[in-house]
TrEMBL record:
One Pfam family per UniProt: Glyoxalase
Transmembrane segments: none
Gene3D superfamilies per record: 2,3-Dihydroxybiphenyl 1,2-Dioxygenase, domain 1
Signal peptide positions on this chain: none
VOC domain ranges (all copies): 5-154
Organism: Caulobacter vibrioides (strain ATCC 19089 / CIP 103742 / CB 15)
Lineage: Bacteria, Pseudomonadati, Pseudomonadota, Alphaproteobacteria, Caulobacterales
Protein name: VOC domain-containing protein
Length: 174
């Protein structure tokens, strides 16, 4: 088996028309495929570059959102989600475009973390200023469905020194 990339990630939306407007007009992702499902639902695909798509299901009788369980409740203070949930989707962008992306989202009234976040290996995991230890810079926002999104730009290639933590084990309670 040879995985060559992500084909698509399928999420669930509360309103397909609202979702189409957001992804085509604000994020400028072309709508490339629509499917009418036999149960009355819909399944739409947006081109997110590199041969990958972001897809959405919609059903008229879908269960409501569950922030803090199935999605991030409030970033960054309450960012944990349940096992098996999807925490967020990160799209690659050029680092030089991050500030313009942030401004575009803010101008469109999108709920957005108000600054570009510099991720590094410090104790807090973030830095106020860009420095050689920053490995990715990000803009965080939520879509109309409350799904947390990230526009991310790696600032350097990863090497062997970037893998230095042992994986943790879950604590099993009796």
């Amino acid at each position: 088996m040879k995985i060559t990339g992500v084909n698509h990630l399928a999420l669930v939306c509360r309103d397909m028309a609202e979702t189409v407007r957001f992804y085509t007009q604000i994020l400028q992702m072309p709508l490339v495929k629509t499917v009418a499902l036999p149960d009355g639902g819909q399944h739409f695909f947006f081109d997110c570059g590199g041969g990958s798509c972001l897809a959405f299901f919609w059903w008229p009788d879908v269960p409501p959102a569950a922030p803090g369980v199935a999605s991030v409740k409030a970033f960054p203070a309450e960012a944990k989600t349940a096992v098996g949930s999807m925490n967020h989707v990160a799209f690659s962008v050029d680092e030089a475009d991050l500030d313009a992306c942030l401004q575009r989202l803010q101008a469109a009234g999108v709920p957005v973390f108000p600054m570009v976040v510099n991720h590094d290996d410090s104790e807090m995991g973030v830095a106020r200023k860009l420095h050689p230890g920053v490995f990715v810079r990000s803009v965080y926002f939520t879509d109309p469905n409350g799904i947390m999104m990230e526009l991310a730009a790696f600032t350097r290639a990863f090497g062997p020194d970037d893998v230095r933590h042992e994986p943790a084990h879950a604590v099993v309670s009796a």
